[in-house]
């Protein structure tokens, strides 16, 4: 089965109510997309791990306060400091104490000193600031997973801090199963959803339910590659001939044409991935598509 068609089937399956496995409701974490836009994140340490943390929070539009001696800065950390002077406030020193936590919304430590890391953790919790301490899972209020990112599409694989390497290997397997243009499709659906809300404004009620049902129908009846083809004219026609008439037109009906070539054969998952992991990817992408722009 082609990957795009497989994802469409998965999307429909996700919309079907299922009974929860109540026997396994423990031992996990609550996976969230944390909104850090304009929040202040304190990062302590400037090495390899810290550079990854900096990249992650910059992607989330956070403001960064970085504390680390210049002698130990990773080349990528130095590059971030140079490239984002308006978003990174850098202090060439070690952590000074509680005063460094003033006005901070999140703390990330990535230093080799275990005792100092635990001290910072205790201070952060005393001030009720969420903290992640690299390589010390019991000192983490949350974990960093292995992430796949394509535009607004983000998928995280978490092992609850138990095996980051395995999470990375699983990520690579899952990444191979993602259809080309998935991130672009998410972005285009987000624009379409915004245009629909402009045409049919309001929160909740029957109108809100109808909007959601129609968006679900579009996402499940169109293939991922086709959603990525949407432009302004096609969206307008999709709303005129689709939303207004309570139907979902085909790609060709709104002026689109499928792009198919021998060099863009849909990618398929490895055999071991084709069931459980493929479902995880389908679930993640479907939720991202349906909820893009929801705040």
UniProtKB/TrEMBL annotation:
Its EC number is 1.3.1.76. The keyword Thylakoid does not apply. This is precorrin-2 dehydrogenase. The chain crosses the membrane at residues 271-291. The lineage of its organism: Eukaryota, Fungi, Dikarya, Basidiomycota, Agaricomycotina. SUPFAM superfamilies: NAD(P)-binding Rossmann-fold domains, Siroheme synthase middle domains-like. Residues 179-249 form the Siroheme biosynthesis protein Met8 C-terminal domain. NCBIfam families: cysG_Nterm (TIGR01470).
């Amino acid at each position: 089965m082609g990957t795009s068609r497989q994802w469409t089937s998965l999307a429909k399956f996700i919309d079907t109510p299922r009974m929860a496995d109540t026997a396994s409701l423990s031992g996990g974490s609550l996976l969230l997309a944390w909104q850090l836009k304009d929040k202040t994140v304190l990062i302590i340490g400037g090495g390899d791990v810290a550079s990854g943390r900096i990249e992650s929070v910059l992607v989330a539009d956070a403001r960064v306060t970085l504390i680390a001696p210049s002698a130990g800065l990773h080349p990528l950390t130095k590059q971030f400091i140079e490239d984002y002077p308006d978003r990174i406030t850098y202090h060439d020193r070690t952590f000074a104490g509680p005063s460094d936590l003033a006005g901070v919304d999140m703390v990330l430590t990535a230093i080799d000193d275990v005792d100092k890391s635990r001290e910072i953790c205790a201070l952060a919790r005393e001030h009720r600031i969420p903290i992640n301490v690299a390589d010390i899972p019991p000192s983490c209020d949350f974990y960093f997973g292995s992430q796949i990112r394509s535009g607004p599409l983000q998928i995280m694989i978490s092992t609850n801090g138990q095996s980051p390497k395995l999470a990375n290997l699983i990520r690579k397997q899952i990444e191979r199963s993602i259809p080309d243009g998935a991130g672009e499709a998410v972005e285009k659906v987000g624009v379409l959803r915004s245009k629909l809300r402009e045409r049919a404004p309001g929160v909740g009620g029957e109108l809100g339910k109808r909007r959601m049902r129609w968006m679900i129908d579009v996402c499940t009846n169109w293939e991922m590659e086709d959603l990525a083809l949407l432009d302004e004219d096609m969206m307008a026609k999709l709303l005129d001939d689709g939303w207004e008439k309570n139907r979902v037109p085909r790609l060709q009906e709104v002026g689109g044409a499928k792009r198919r070539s021998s060099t863009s054969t849909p990618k398929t998952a490895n055999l071991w991935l084709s069931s459980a992991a493929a479902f995880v990817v389908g679930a993640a992408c479907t939720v991202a598509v349906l909820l893009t722009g929801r705040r």
